[in-house]
Design brief:
single chain, 134 residues, mainly alpha, 6 helices, globular, binds iron/sulfur cluster
Length: 134
Amino acid sequence: MGGRLVNPPESIQQMWDGAQKKRASADWALQWLWNQPEVSVVLSGMSTLEQVQQNLASADASGVNVLTEQELALIGRVREKYRELAPIPCTQCGYCLPCPNGVFIPRNFTLYNVGAMYSRPENARSWYGFLADR
Ligand code: SF4
């Protein structure tokens, strides 16, 4: 989610806080990936040594079927909550591009969704101002 998993909306943070085993929100995402038997490599953007160390610790604690049924159910509820919080169900597939009027449609929808998700429409307006013509 472009780094937004690290800083979830308040309603989602409360869901994570209710888990029996406490994890950082990025760790939940990484653990879900590592929990899949098909996954052998997980790549995550890291910009500090601390993030590298956190991700190494996450990988050390990971494994197929490490997550409990309750934890998987919680992740499912969080996923549904993220979908609820985003008013436009755009998957970023890009099929609507190129727009004949030059509108970068999926990016606009992302800005709108993120502004709504965090209840910060002023941020979405500000980011919109930085959009280049596409
Ligand atoms: S708005 Fe465009 S990018 Fe988003 S789901 Fe529809 S076709 Fe795909």
